[in-house]
Design goal:
Blueprint lengths: L5 H10 L6 H8 L7 H14 L3 H11 L15 H13 L5 H10 L1 H6 L19 H8 L32 H10 L3 E2 L25 E2 L10 E2 L12 E2 L12 H15 L4 H13 L6 H12 L9 H10 L1 H4 L10 E2 L2 H11 L16 H4 L40 H16 L18 H6 L3 H13 L5 H11 L10 H12 L2 H4 E2 L1
Antiparallel strand pairs: 1-2, 3-4, 5-6
Helix pairs in contact: 3-15, 4-5, 6-10, 8-9, 11-12, 11-13, 12-13, 17-21, 19-21
Length: 515
């Protein structure tokens, strides 16, 4: 990257296609071998460690923590191939348009089952049936506009400037949720016959999981007008989607699709979407506490990529990564940066030290993800992800300072202890050349580090650049140098000194915080 520059590297990465998960699962199934979620985690590990499209992989993971589905849900927990397909949808569209991504996510059967839009039916007063509001609520709260009206810089709009303090303004009401819930009715399995609502399934091969849901006019709420989002410049008068006649021909499903298109356009064009999505992506990729100016710069690109296109994620990702706030070297005491998610710390170490496995499967490590990190791909306990974007660790340093520390929500005493032990074991046991290692174990390669161990300064400089991007503080460098200089080289070819250096860096607070 330093050789060709950030812009050239970004252009190369943005041009690469997505290395998908579902093809890997298909490959394992063809062995033949049973495919469960452990194989899906294995696919994620393979791609995270070895795929050439690392930026796309990273953005896909970020999107999976925003547009959340999870194998912990009983509705989709038994469908590893379907969840792999959903993840691939995120990866394939990571540099596409957010409007298109919203529609793909909305109509994916995994999301349909996870947030119960699948099989959602029009109201029926006789049976006291009302449309399910789950997806209507979450697509607004978590996927697009958020709970409060926002300025372009992501700060809340002040509804009463004459009152001391910011008085937030709600983005929508219960009527809005109800309106969208009515829109999200009448969707079921792909190509399900109109007269077989409730009787279709995904098919003998489960292929229905891999195609967008299809509409059924008999179960869509046409008759009622629907209150959608109302905002300045809204295309629908007052944000209201008018009632329309039910098609005389049940095969005419276009009006159902038209309602969905109008509703998603209504969401996508809300002024909150740019700052909301931009801040979420910045938090996942760069910093827990981006400045309002940073959010505004990226949100402006979301709103217009320079060619009049709104929602261009390719332009948004470029803006996030190349922004001066992302590229500037922060001072140690600043609030820039974020705690590295445990799962990403893990894979960073494996990738940095060219991890290999004798059978090329990495199927001895992924099973420990939830134990050591409380994370795995599409494995959060709720739709709110592993941690909340606005979580603030209690105390003067974060909460009282008005800052956020999302990843610290899962950094509990238990997991800190487990993960620290794991990183130490990685450095001191799972490495090539350890004669006691099981032949089938995955291992990292520390031959470069052993070769540098005679020169402590050179070893630390190398590890600083490799693991910390050159951000190691003088205090940490001096402390490590003083310790490592006392570690004898003996006749172990630098093993002890290099593994000591590695384990101390990997378990340090400075490595844990990405700046």
């Amino acid at each position: 990257m330093r050789r060709i520059g950030y812009n050239a590297w970004l252009s190369e990465q943005l041009a690469l296609p997505f290395s998908g998960h579902q093809p890997y699962l298909d490959q394992i199934a063809a062995i033949p071998e049973d495919v469960y979620h452990n194989i899906r985690y294995e696919a994620w590990t393979q791609r995270a460690l070895t795929a050439p499209d690392q930026l796309r992989q990273r953005v896909a993971f970020a999107l999976s923590e925003i547009l959340v589905t999870s194998d912990q849900s009983g509705a989709v927990g038994g469908e590893p191939l379907a969840l792999a397909h959903y993840y691939d949808l995120l990866g394939s569209n990571a540099f596409g348009n957010y409007r298109q991504l919203l529609e793909l996510v909305t109509l994916d059967p995994v999301m349909g089952h996870y947030l119960s839009m699948f099989g959602n039916e029009k109201p029926d007063l006789a049976s006291n049936r009302r449309p399910d509001e789950n997806y209507a609520r979450e697509i607004m709260q978590l996927f697009s506009v958020g709970l409060e009206q926002l300025n372009l810089d992501g700060t809340p709009v002040d509804g009463d400037p004459l009152t001391v303090g910011v008085q937030p303004v709600a983005s929508y009401s219960q009527d809005t949720i109800r309106g969208f819930a009515h829109v999200f009715t009448g969707w079921t399995w792909f190509n399900c016959p109109i007269d077989n609502w409730g009787g279709c399934g995904p098919g003998a091969t489960g292929a229905g999981w891999f195609s967008p849901m299809s509409p059924n006019v008999e179960f869509h709420a046409f008759e009622d007008s629907k209150q959608l989002l109302n905002y300045s410049g809204v295309a629908l008068l007052g944000g209201i989607l008018p009632a329309t006649p039910r098609p005389a021909n049940p095969a005419n499903v276009q009006p159902v699709r038209d309602d969905l298109t109008a509703a998603l356009n209504n969401i996508f064009n809300h002024p909150n979407v740019g700052p909301f999505v931009s801040r979420r992506l910045i938090q996942r990729l760069v910093s827990s506490n981006p400045s309002p100016a940073y959010v505004q710069r990226v949100a402006s690109v979301f709103n217009n990529n320079g060619s009049g296109v709104r929602g261009d994620l390719r332009a948004v990702v470029r803006a996030i990564v190349l922004d001066s706030e992302a590229r500037a070297r922060p001072v140690v005491a600043s609030s820039a940066g974020k705690l590295r998610e445990p799962l990403l710390r893990w894979t960073q170490v494996w990738r940095a030290f060219a991890a290999t496995n004798p059978n090329n499967r990495f199927n001895d490590w992924y099973v420990w993800y939830p134990y050591y990190t409380p994370q795995a791909s599409l494995h959060s306990a709720t739709v709110f992800n592993f941690f909340l974007p606005d979580y603030a660790a209690p105390g003067a340093d974060v909460a009282q300072a008005g800052l956020f520390s999302p990843e610290f929500q899962i950094e509990t005493d238990t997991f800190v202890t487990r993960f620290t032990n794991f990183l130490t074991t990685t450095a001191t046991w799972w490495f090539s050349g350890n004669p006691s290692l099981d032949p089938n174990d995955s291992r990292i390669n520390i031959e470069r580090e052993k070769a540098l161990s005679a020169n402590v300064e050179a070893l630390l400089e190398h590890l600083d650049v490799l693991l910390m991007g050159g951000t190691m503080s003088p205090f940490m460098r001096t402390t490590l140098k003083n310790h490592l200089s006392q570690v004898p080289l003996a006749d172990d070819n630098g093993y002890r000194r290099s593994t000591d250096a590695l384990s101390l860096i990997l378990t340090s607070p400075e490595f844990s915080i990405e700046k």
